[in-house]
Amino acid sequence: PSWARNSQLNLVANNFGADISSNSALPTGLDCLQRNTPCFLGSPKSSSFAVDCGSDRPISGSDNSLYQPDAATLGAASYYVTGEPTWGASNVGRFMDASNVSSIIYSSHQFLNTLDTELFRNARMSPSSLRYYGIGLENGNYTVTLQFAEFAFPDAQSWKSRGRRVFDIYVQGERKEQNFDIRKVAGGKSYTAVRKQYTVPVTKNFLEIHLFWAGKGTCCIPDQGYYGPAISALSATPNFTPTVRNAAAKKNGSKTGMIVGVIVGLAVLGLVAFAAIFVWRQKKRKLSLEQEELYSIVGRPNVLSYGELRSATDNFSPDNLLGQGGYGSVYKGKLTDGRFVAVKQLSEKSHQGKREFATEIETISRVQHRNLVKLYGCCLEGNKPLLVYEYLENGSLDHALFGKGKSSLDWPTRFEICLGVARGLSYLHEESSIRVVHRDIKASNILLDANLNPKISDFGLAKLYDDQKTHVSTKVAGTFGYLAPEYAMRGHMTEKIDVFAFGVVVLETLAGRPNYSTKDENKVYIFEWVWELYEDNRPLDVVDPRLEEFDSEEVLRAIKVALLCTQGSPHQRPPMSRVVAMLTGDVEAPDVVTKPSYITEWQIKGGNTSYMSTDVSGQSSSAPRPNSSTSQTSSPFLSSVIDEGR
């Protein structure tokens, strides 16, 4: 620039003082940024300042500081000084090969390890050298607080997370940090606040904070130009009693009135503050006692913090969403110890208090079996309780059998899946220390691990379901197509309703199709179709056409077991321990000769019914409605079911 052409400048020491003999003058503002001759030298104007780097509006911090905005555009070699000079900033460097990169970056994530998450939504980034200056400060020792949080590099396991931001930190010309890496200091986590504090002297009414890249770290990950120092907020507060104020007092007006007003205001403020503190302490004490009581129920090792789970799921990112249902949403996450987990965010409409929730979780955690999904823990904070389960790589059985990405499961695998589910239910009903009736056994609640071993999920959580989204009525919890008649009709609940649902799952696994389908009008309902083949002495025609090879003896055994389990009367269904014995061949599976009465009634009343196509909440599925000649409810049982749903 013209002012510098005939000047002797010391760029390294940031001493831009022009040679007096050249009669040059520094532009307005830049003269305030000189280390040896700053503005207000010997006549301080302020005793503190705080800056929210990159923000366009002031923010009140939890430390009672008012953080001033810092949204100025700083180019390759530019500076900025506040209109009422108390602080300034300068930038040196250009982002190489970057396309339209901004020196101010933004994130909408929640930040951990801080009470002031708003301070970290914006950050100022520099390609090389970034300085902040305190101007006209009263001399003395100050506490300089620098606050950082890395969010340019995500925590997810991808190439974008491989970036490293490394720089040096100088305060008053003294190097305080060498090779400083925000993410490394935060324990390898992004979106986590890091605070650095230093005690430094101010001797010439001037403070300089310098963040220097020095060519360290990465330059091109995740995007070209994302390198160099970055900072979210900073502040400088005196370690002494200041004699200057940050704002000038009004010159006009009565001093007496001002003093009285200040005294009265302070008195009122003191009373309000005292009352607020008293209420806050009482509330905190009550919450603390409640929390301790909940911890005593669940056990501390099983309780995880909301912050930890939010970080594990990348702030419950849609990219980590595994599924949704009436209970809420399920997200994939990774804990700090490296374990992958499924985090279930229960709906606020679970109609259950924290005490009941904690008691139920403690009960469920005592139920352990190789064919049950393992519950790692829970979170008791907030209005949406969280459950943390083991993560199973191969998803649900319904997805594997008839989802869009359905797998070609061979017969031995399918048979072992049926046998594993039977063993899990047998444990819940007869072997565990507490008796558990699942109430919602279905293909989507059976998950498959890396070796395709089945594991039952959501056992014991029926009371946590949302009536409006999970086919749950006031008395009945479950899904049509899997509901036992006595449960759907009268709400009568025993372990035999799980036996009925298990029989349906076995038929679906054998046939490779859901219990209700409109692809073939002769095979709409799996019950009628299977019984028709069984009575025609063609039971093996049930088998999924994709199975080129299968054990006929095992298939026939599984069909007989499924037909026994789906008998209309609960007394005719075997206990799950006997089901396991029949599947393994330890006990002979008897021939089933009695067709359930509910199937007979369907056929007498006209065949197609709305039993499979109407859920408990009364909402119709995508299946076509029966025509006018058969649209009436086909039996008292079905009428009761539909009335129950309405």
TrEMBL record:
Domain Protein kinase: 316-592
EC number: 2.7.11.1
The keyword Repeat belongs to this UniProt entry's keyword annotation: yes
InterPro entries tied to this protein: Kinase-like_dom_sf, LRR_Rcpt-Like_S/T_Kinase, Malectin_dom, Prot_kinase_dom, Protein_kinase_ATP_BS, Ser/Thr_kinase_AS
UniProt keyword annotation of Nucleotide-binding present: yes
Main location: membrane
Superkingdom to which the source organism belongs: Eukaryota
Gene Ontology CC, one term: plasma membrane
Single GO MF annotation: ATP binding
Chain intervals with Low complexity compositional bias: 617-640
Protein residues bound to ATP: 344
PROSITE patterns from the UniProt entry: PROTEIN_KINASE_ATP (PS00107), PROTEIN_KINASE_DOM (PS50011), PROTEIN_KINASE_ST (PS00108)
Transmembrane segments: 258-280
Disordered: region residues: 610-646
Subcellular location: Membrane
Membrane topology: Single-pass membrane protein
Keywords of the record: ATP-binding, Glycoprotein, Kinase, Membrane, Nucleotide-binding, Phosphoprotein, Receptor, Repeat, Serine/threonine-protein kinase, Signal, Transferase, Transmembrane, Transmembrane helix
Record protein name field: non-specific serine/threonine protein kinase
Organism expressing this protein natively: Aegilops tauschii subsp. strangulata
